[in-house]
Design a protein that fits this description.
- The protein folds into two domains: about 5-170 and about 210-245, Rossmann fold, CATH 3.40.50; about 175-210 and about 245-315, UDP-galactose 4-epimerase, domain 1.
- About 40% of the residues lie in helices and about 15% in strands.
- It is built from eleven helices and 13 strands.
- It has helices at about 15-25, 55-65, 80-85, 85-110, 120-125, 140-160, 185-195, 215-225, 250-260, 285-290, 300-315, and strands spanning about 5-10, 30, 50, 70-75, 110-120, 165-170, 170-175, 200, 210, 210-215, 240-245, 250, 270.
- The strands form four sheets. It has a seven-stranded parallel sheet, sandwiched between helices. Strands 7-10 form a two-stranded parallel sheet.
- Helix 1 (about 15-25) links the parallel strand 1 and strand 2.
- It is globular and about 55 Å long.
- The chain starts with a strand and ends with a helix.
- About 50% of the residues are buried.
Length: about 325
């Protein structure tokens, strides 16, 4: 019998790639997504799709009775700016919905939950590169909700025996990232280049991020579903793993790389910096390599080309 896997947020950017990866690994995949941001066409045709909010009673009932061995939880409110303007909504989407899912998983006997956390916002404004044990001081409600979620996972492991893995992503980019709404800068830049519009950099452009390709992130989820985990050590970091390249790329350098990938010439403008945005972030993934067997495989230049090609094709 195929292993049953649930992917929450599986109609979204990262979640749909994770669903693809589980299917490629021979799993029976069910996707939950409320389609508030996800796209139905992102859901793999071989996956069962249920349009549900993760925080709903229906979703909890599905999880408790679905016989899911593994859950990859990607459904979330992911916009730092939204969390700053409406922290209550952020907590409802990122904490209360998680608790609803955890209660369903506890009742349903789920073995392992792979949680999508965020390295940059969890560690806060620390000098990179960050390792898992880097002191944590989030500078946005979004970062607080992600870190609080990790503590809930540790608690459920201690109380109920749920095996929970937190994957702390760097800045994920790639095909299917929506260039609107809470999109990442790669998708925004790519969409503007596709239409010949100037690029806008918020702040002076010296702020840095660690950009990791979405297919690499999806592969990390599948590896985390089966890896032998370290024993709990009384900290939130024991079963947390950075998923990044360890390379800092400035927003200015990213804009130049995107322009090169697109093969077009546009102007680059500057606007005021945004509240809650980090100045620097990069994640060291040595622990993921050692325990999960994961390393990034797609270079930034290659990933940007794939992303821009997809943006052009998706808009055609």
């Amino acid at each position: 019998m195929k292993r049953r896997v649930l992917v929450t947020g599986g109609a979204g950017f990262i979640g749909s790639h994770v669903a693809d990866a589980y299917l490629a690994a021979g799993c029976d995949v069910t996707v939950i997504d409320n389609l508030s941001h996800g796209r139905p066409q992102n859901v793999p045709k071989a996956a069962e799709f249920r349009q549900l909010d993760v925080g709903s009673e229906e979703a909890r009932a599905l999880v408790s009775g679905g016989g899911f061995e593994v859950i990859s939880h990607l459904a979330a409110q992911v916009d730092v700016r939204v969390s700053v303007s409406d922290p209550i909504f952020d907590a409802e989407e990122n904490l209360l919905a998680l608790l609803n899912l955890l209660e369903g998983a506890r009742a349903g006997g789920t073995r392992r939950l792979v949680f999508s956390s965020s390295g940059g916002v969890v560690y806060g404004e620390r000098k990179p590169p960050h390792v898992e044990t880097t002191p944590k001081l989030p500078v946005s409600p979004y970062g607080v909700s992600k870190l609080a979620a990790e503590y809930y996972l540790v608690c459920y492991g201690q109380l109920y025996g749920l095996e929970a893995v937190a994957l702390r992503y760097a800045n994920v980019y790639g095909p299917r990232q929506d260039p609107h709404g809470e999109a990442g800068v790669v998708a925004i830049f790519g969409n503007r280049l596709r239409t010949g519009k100037p690029l806008t950099i918020y702040g002076d452009g010296s702020q840095t991020r660690d950009y990791v390709y979405v297919a690499d992130v999806a592969r990390a989820n599948v590896l985390a579903a089966d890896a032998t985990l370290p024993a709990p050590d009384g900290t939130v970091d024991a079963r947390a793993f950075n998923i990044g390249t360890g390379v800092e790329t400035s927003v200015t350098a990213l804009a130049e790389a995107m322009i090169a990938a697109a093969g077009v010439e546009v102007s680059v403008d500057h606007a005021a910096a945004r509240a809650g945005e980090l100045l620097a972030s990069a994640l060291t993934a040595a622990k993921a390599e050692r325990i999960l067997g994961w390393t990034p495989q797609v270079s930034l230049a290659e990933g940007l080309r794939h992303t821009y090609d997809w943006l052009r094709g998706d808009a055609a």
